[in-house]
Write a structure and sequence with these properties.
With about 110 residues, the protein is an alpha/beta fold. It has 3 helices and 3 strands, in the order E-H-E-H-E-H. It has one domain: HUPs (Rossmann fold).
Length: about 110
């Protein structure tokens, strides 16, 4: 879902969601499906991975942490791709770095 599944210009409405590994994210998306979704919506899922302070970490610890982070993001992407596909919508997942609220607003504006 990192790639655009369909040209977003063909959709009347884009809907952006900030997501993470919590149940709350999944519940919010489900609420959207149950109450607000339109068949021609284009969903943009936005994830801001947790930031770590690597300044005192050894290279091996940094490498391990980055591998774990990559695994988490890949699993999250797979999970939400399946959820969105079940709803028969199209969309994409974007990730960003920084403060989550600021990143979500910035990416939503770009879309």
């Amino acid at each position: 879902m990192a790639e655009q599944l369909l040209d977003s210009k063909h959709h009347k409405r884009k809907v952006a969601f900030g997501i993470d590994e919590s149940e709350h994210s999944e519940q919010a998306l489900q609420w959207y499906f149950d109450n607000v979704m339109r068949p021609d919506d284009y969903v943009v899922l936005i994830h801001t991975p947790e930031l770590y302070d690597f300044s005192m970490a050894s290279p091996s610890v940094v490498d391990h942490m980055l591998k774990e982070l990559t695994k988490k993001v890949t699993a999250l992407e797979k999970k939400y791709k399946e959820i969105v596909q079940k709803s028969k919508l199209t969309g994409k997942l974007r990730t960003g770095q920084g403060k989550p609220g600021e990143v979500v607003c910035k990416i939503a504006e770009e879309e």
